Predict the 3D structure of the following.
Amino acid sequence: MIEIKNIIKDFNNVRVLHGIDGKFLPGQPNLIIGSSGTGKTVLLKCMVGLLAPDEGDVVYDQRNFHKSKKDEIREIRREIGMLFQGGALFDSKNVEQNVSFPLDLLTDTPRDEKLDRVNFVLKRVGLENVNKKMPSEISGGMKKRVGIARAIVNNSRYLYCDEPNSGLDPLTAIVIDHLIEEITEEFNITTIVVTHDMNSVMEIGEYVLFMHQGRKLWEGSKNEILTADVKELQDFVYSNKLLKAVRNEKHV
Amino acid sequence: MQIIGRYFLFLHSLIIKRESFNTYVRLIIDECIKVGINSIFIVAIVSTFIGAVTAVQTAYNIVSPLIPNYVVSLVVRDMTLLELAPTITAIVFAGKVGSNISGELGTMRISEQIDALEVMGINSSSFLVLPKIIACLLMYPLLVILAGFLALIGGYLAATLTGAMTPDEFIYGIRADFIEYNVTFALIKSVVFAFLISSISAFTGYFTIGGALEVGRASTKAVTSSCIAILSADYLLAQLLL
């Protein structure tokens, strides 16, 4: 289980995170939602160690990440897979080399086994016959899939996804959401998705943490979110005209 | 001062928590090709013409009948060894390789590729930068040797084809009063310059913040900072070692 306790982060004396707490469900998709500029990505970066919080703890299965020794931090990091907003695929490597990269560097897996594993995860994310393509030759949706494949190839225990739907059409976005949900269940990974896409919330939000101006204002499940009694959350959820219209229709 | 402190911390981060030795071998070979083999053409062109121009201008300035002709090639040799081959090539190298290193790392930074390495538990600075520095340290002295050789060839062709001196006079001048230490000095300079160019360029690129505009700025800054560092080190080494 991943637990965050009182995470505080300042940039140039401006407080960006105001003591965020949360317990994320193990083996489930967990969502951190909120408007742009509310501190979601900063929180995510604190959780994976790209930023050090000024105060607070991030605990991975009883292991306090930021208070561990460097070797232990390295070990925890090797259990983390991450899908970045733009995919963050290595430009100079083809799809196969990108996915194989964590295995090449972090394991002594024999070459044939590595190739089998790479082909397995690529097939699992719905990509076949693209092994030799360069990142510049594939679409945005495919890049996200390759990113997911790379994140899980090393049997990660924790999967982070930063805005997995950004830049994708609604249909592809739903496909990616379902893929994240299926992979989470299939490989028993604890997944944390940062998003502001309400479709994702309604598709895969088993645990949802809502942030507003650097504070946690609400937590619950996708089933509770539509009726939550928090004004900021309601404004966020019903910012979409369609949802607003549906709500008004229900009230009538 | 803050930047200099960050630079030294950056250098320290290159040597701690490295990956396995085998990981670096392949990367260093790749980088040697990128920084060494791919720079041969530009280094060859620049050094040949600089040698030729030095010969022509020296011959043009030495008009006294009291000064023998072979002095022209002696001047070309010493200028090439002491200054032109290591220093001018370093400026060219900073423009080509330094901007490339900075641009590559800057792009990796803004497209989150460096973050991806960090999340995987890899020391990104060591993994990305150390092979580049080692490759520069290995390849740049070889480029300087090539540049020195080609500059002398350029000088020879310019001096003999224009009739400023005979081939025998040129060869005599090349051999006359030769100080072997000058070669050692040139190679010491080349190692220092290679380190400065690669590490400064990597430093500016690695800490790029922003977008494409900032990557361009980082590349420009890498070249200007490297050039300043090269010229300062050039003076310092001349004072210390000559």
